[in-house]
């Protein structure tokens, strides 16, 4: 009598992945960013002379890339916020929002665009740009819906910051010696706006315990730091300017510069260790994805402020020297 075959071995249940799944949406999003950056570089080779200084070329590439990102990506975010909808059941009310798997980003009894019967945002779309923001919303839930602060900031980003970045690109094509202060003025305005926008985007989260930020995934940190890098570099213009202290300034002005330098050094010395500890803590907590995509909009505007402060201070010092020479000649 033949024995029955042994039962198949028990297959253990699959272990859920703690890291992100790099799917087609993620790859397409990263390739799109690289395509915009490549397009900005290609445009710089066409509209700028070959002997253009490296700094000017970098500034042109950055501002064109910045404008393209604002128009394409953040413009698509606004499209989702205003035109991608989900119809609520007729029995839905603000009191019944908790049992439903729906996240509302407006206060109770406040409805986006005044529509009580519709939900807006990327979470309710199926197109490629909806999928893109659904992926981003894994790091910060607010980008999947219509958070009032985020949408208000993105409206300014798309319709003010984007065109302003294009205007700066135009100024950069007019020659390195022409309208120098005008260029740096508008670059300062834009860089300050980028840093302020980053702060207003994330400060409400920090002040409420970050209920919408996901710290459990190692890739999500890169998305968070896109705005953080810009803030860090914004402190460097002051340090750069202290090295350009003109000999023609008065004693009181020199004392003011020295005290400013000391204060800045204290701020930087105290801030950098704290920032390093915070960064290591966040990396260990798993925010890499959120940080990388936010960092550029902190670092680059900060560097621009660094250069703008130095350029405008140098121009002011030269103007003061011209006035002094003219005054001395008048006495002669």
UniProtKB/TrEMBL annotation:
Q: Specify the EXPERA domain's residue ranges.
A: 55-305
Q: What is its main location?
A: membrane
Q: Does the keyword Zinc apply?
A: no
Q: Where in the cell is it found?
A: Membrane
Give a yes or no for keyword Transmembrane in this entry.
yes
Coiled-coil annotated residue ranges, if any: none
Stored PROSITE patterns? EXPERA (PS51751)
Residues annotated as transmembrane: 27-48, 60-79, 150-172, 184-202, 287-306
- Might you name a Gene Ontology BP term for this protein? sterol metabolic process
The UniProt keyword set, sorted, is: Isomerase, Membrane, Transmembrane, Transmembrane helix
- Note the superkingdom of the native organism: Eukaryota
Q: Which Pfam families match?
A: EBP (PF05241)
Gene Ontology MF: a single term: cholestenol delta-isomerase activity
User: How does the record classify its membrane topology?
Assistant: Multi-pass membrane protein
Q: GO terms for CC? A: endoplasmic reticulum; membrane
Q: Which family does it belong to?
A: Belongs to the EBP family.
Name the chain's protein: C-87 sterol isomerase emopamil-binding
The protein's organism comes out as Pyrenophora seminiperda CCB06
């Amino acid at each position: 009598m033949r024995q029955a075959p042994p039962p198949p071995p028990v297959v253990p249940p699959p272990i859920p992945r703690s890291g992100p799944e790099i799917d087609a949406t993620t790859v397409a999003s990263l390739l799109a960013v690289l395509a915009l950056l490549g397009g900005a570089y290609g445009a710089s080779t066409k509209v700028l002379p070959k002997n253009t200084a490296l700094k000017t070329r970098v500034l042109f590439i950055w501002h064109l890339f910045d404008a393209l990102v604002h128009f394409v990506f953040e413009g698509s975010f606004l499209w989702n916020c205003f035109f991608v909808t989900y119809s609520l059941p007729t029995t839905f009310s603000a009191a019944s929002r908790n049992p439903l798997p729906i996240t509302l980003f407006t206060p109770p009894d406040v409805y986006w665009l005044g529509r009580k019967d519709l939900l807006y945002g990327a979470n309710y779309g199926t197109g490629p740009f909806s999928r893109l923001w659904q992926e981003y919303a894994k790091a910060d839930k607010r980008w999947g819906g219509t958070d009032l602060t985020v949408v208000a900031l993105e409206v300014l980003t798309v319709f003010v910051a984007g065109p302003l970045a294009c205007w700066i690109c135009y100024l950069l094509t007019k020659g390195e010696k022409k309208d120098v202060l005008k260029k740096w003025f508008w670059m300062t305005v834009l860089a300050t706006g980028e840093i302020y926008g980053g702060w207003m985007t994330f400060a409400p989260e920090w002040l409420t315990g970050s209920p919408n930020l996901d710290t459990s995934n190692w890739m999500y940190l890169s998305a968070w730091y896109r705005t953080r890098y810009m803030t860090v570099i914004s402190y460097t213009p002051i340090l750069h300017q202290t090295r350009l202290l003109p000999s023609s300034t008065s004693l009181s002005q020199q004392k003011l510069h020295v005290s400013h330098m000391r204060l800045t050094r204290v701020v930087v010395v105290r801030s950098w260790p704290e920032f390093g500890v915070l960064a290591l803590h966040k990396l260990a907590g798993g925010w890499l994805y959120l940080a990388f995509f936010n960092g550029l909009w902190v670092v680059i505007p900060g560097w621009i402020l660094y250069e703008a402060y130095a350029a405008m201070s140098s121009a002011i010092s030269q103007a003061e020297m011209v006035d002094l020479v003219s005054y001395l000649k008048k006495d002669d």
